[in-house]
Design brief:
By secondary structure, the protein is α/β, with parallel strands linked by helices. Helix content is 33%, strand content 32%. The protein is built from three helices and five strands. The chain has a five-stranded mixed sheet with strand order 1-2-3-4-5, with helices on one face. The chain is globular.
């Protein structure tokens, strides 16, 4: 699910993106120093729960880390944008394939 590489945290999720998934992300980034880099790869998620996506927006707004999210479908991308997440943090996953950071 996750890998650490040279000062960054990569969190990969698959299956269903639900409230438990958001809580995992929140716990992993809670103790990171400000300015830490986190990459959340949701490209293997097959099912998104809208409530979890809304909670993810809250997590992104509250963190001091620099988080990039990729692998979103258009609906989830739009939801996060409507909820105030800056587009620079989001990659709708449509323009380029995911790059593996697993050394």
């Amino acid at each position: 699910m996750q890998a650490a590489q040279s000062g960054c945290l990569v969190i990969r999720m698959d299956g269903a993106f639900d409230i438990d998934s958001v809580q995992i992300i929140q716990k992993r980034i809670a103790d990171l120093p400000g300015g830490a880099e986190v990459y959340v790869d949701l490209s293997r998620v097959r099912e998104f729960h809208d409530r979890a996506v809304a909670m993810l927006a809250d997590v992104l707004a509250a963190t001091r880390a620099h988080i990039s999210v990729r692998g979103l479908r258009q609906h989830q991308y739009r939801m996060l944008r409507y909820l105030g997440v800056t587009p620079a943090s989001l990659d709708p996953g449509l323009s380029r394939p995911a790059v593996s950071l697993d050394g």
